[in-house]
Amino acid sequence: MSSLKPAGNQPDTGAHGTAKLPARFELPKWTSIAIGVLLLALAVNGLVRMDISWARIGEGPANIWGFITGAFPPNLERAPNLAEAMLETLEMAIIGTGLGVVLSIPAAILAAQNTTPYAPIGVAMRFILTVLRSIPELVWALIFVMAVGLGPLAGILALTVDVLGFAGRFFAERIEEVERGPIDALRSTGASGVAVVATAVLPASFASFTATGLYTLEKSIRGATILGMVGAGGIGMELTPAFTMRQFDTALTIIIMILVVVFLAEQLSSLVRRKMLGVDQLQRAV
User: Fold this and answer.
1) 254: pLDDT strictly greater than 50
2) CB-hemisphere CA count at 13 Å for 220?
3) pTM, two decimal places
């Protein structure tokens, strides 16, 4: 008669026949502890260096209440002028996004590993896109204000560069995800690289390009509203003096305009995506 033995996948038991539970806490590695200590030290140093006092924190609610009571009702006396500035902001966002998206397509083709003509060119283009994307659009606005002067041109250029860095990366990643089958089939017929990109890569990436372009338009509209704070045109040039002069009712009018335009842009983007992808594609899958 053979003795009964526990199966191999059963938990180990102790001397008293009780199952040993896995350890619920393990001491983290020294590198994780060092990183945690460094982050904590930086945070503590920041709180000390920034002179954050309880008195200033206590004044915050009273100041916010002063803004709320001073902002209602919104001041509509300058609504026509503010609407014109909002229209300029919207136009800046559309032009900057359009230029950025158009420039992103050749940049992405050069950056993608499966379409770049030479590997060093791909590496260089990806580095350029990273640099463009790493610098905030507000900093780009300051640079172009210095270069071309105050006004919406500086805002358009700042948005174009920002969109180029952002959309160029996503376009390149989408191109690298295109299935190899149609590309190899065309190459086997002797088609040139330009023909392969024009007839296989770009058609397969068009829907993704459009969705990314619409998202960058939403992003540009939100970004364009603050570029005016550094002199790059748009509604931001009205918002800064409204707060500086404590005209909170005018500031609230501008904020409401920004909210309406951003909301409408998001709805338009969702509508276009729904039309392109179809309702079935957007329905819950799980």
Assistant:
1) yes
2) 34
3) 0.76
